[in-house]
Specification:
Length: 319
């Protein structure tokens, strides 16, 4: 009798859980973005949200909460109910860099957030001013060991800065860092010859490369970019294992039911692989990169460990 009752209760619980998952979503979903409207992460979120609204049958509303390199939006997500109605499109900063870069971190990205899927990878180019006598990565390393060089970045602790420090560590060089308040001013100074090189986004640099105003030596991603397939990766051009990928991805609060995570993974993956979304991302220098929650979890952990070593070795500190 007791066994029968236990079986009845267990079956009822499973049925209730399945029904809850099947009913999801039953109200609008908030898609948080940790940056101001108009930026790359924001425009990506808005393009995807339109597709998700159609496929899920509920409005997916983009909510911009800029600040602390994405940490404010991430902390809101961490503290939200784990019910699938608060979703975050986050970047490498909040998920894998800030925990090593900042003195105070109000949450643990690995423990307090559940990965859904990686969304997109940004193709960054290593570009130099034409006056720099280097036509390859190996040439640049040799030159940097022979004379002082400097490299710009959009700011301290950003992807461009960390790519430069990783290059120095792996290449045995000491290229100086010149931080700017954004990628635009850094590109302007590179074009003017005030700095020697920069790790720039493909979208911000490709037209200048094609016009011959700057020279591209390689891409920072693990694979060659469709934006410039003739360019080698920095890894194959002289620094094996080099990868400085500026990525973003979808996460939800920890303890979100697996059935909901699976549904979100399915919907985001389908949206990211739509031809018009892939073209939209490509025009911004991004490649769609969806995968399983497990793949994304492993990637976050590996990226966190890698950049922690770089930040420690380079002595980077941000208040």
């Amino acid at each position: 009798m007791n066994i029968a009752r236990i079986l009845f209760v267990s079956t009822a619980c499973i049925a209730a859980g399945s029904a809850g998952a099947a009913e999801y979503p039953s109200k609008p979903i908030r898609l948080l973005v940790g940056f101001a409207p108009g930026g790359g992460t924001d425009t990506t979120a808005r393009a995807i949200s339109q597709k998700l609204t159609a496929s899920l049958g509920q409005q997916v509303v983009v909510d911009n909460r800029p600040g602390v390199s994405g940490n404010i939006a991430a902390e809101i997500t961490v503290n939200a109910p784990p019910d699938g109605y608060t979703v975050l499109l986050s970047t490498i900063a909040a998920l894998a860099i800030n925990s090593s870069l900042l003195k105070k971190m109000p949450f643990d990205p690995i423990k307090d957030l559940a990965p859904v899927t990686r969304a997109a990878d940004s193709t960054n180019f290593l570009v130099v001013h034409p006056s720099v006598p280097a036509s390859s990565v190996k040439d640049l390393i040799a030159l940097a060991k022979a004379k002082p060089l400097n490299g710009g970045s959009p700011g301290v602790g950003g992807a461009g800065h960390l790519a430069l420090d990783l290059f120095n560590l792996q290449g045995g060089t000491k290229i100086g860092h010149v931080p700017y308040k954004g990628g635009g001013p850094a590109i302007v100074d590179l074009l003017a010859g005030n700095i020697n090189l920069i790790f720039a986004t493909g979208a911000s640099s490709i037209n200048h490369v094609k016009a011959g105003k700057i020279r591209a030596l390689g891409v920072t991603t693990a694979k060659r970019s469709a934006m410039a397939p003739e360019l080698p990766t920095i890894a194959e051009a002289g620094l094996p294992g080099f990868e400085a990928n500026n990525w973003n991805g979808i996460v939800v609060p920890a303890k979100t039911p697996r059935a909901i995570i699976n549904r979100l993974n399915k919907e985001f993956t389908a949206a990211l692989l739509l031809p018009d979304i892939k073209q939209f991302l490509f025009n911004q220098g991004l490649d769609a990169a969806p995968g399983t929650p497990e793949d994304f979890a492993a990637y976050i952990k590996s990226e966190t460990a890698k950049w922690a070593k770089v930040i420690k070795a380079a002595g980077i500190k941000v208040e």
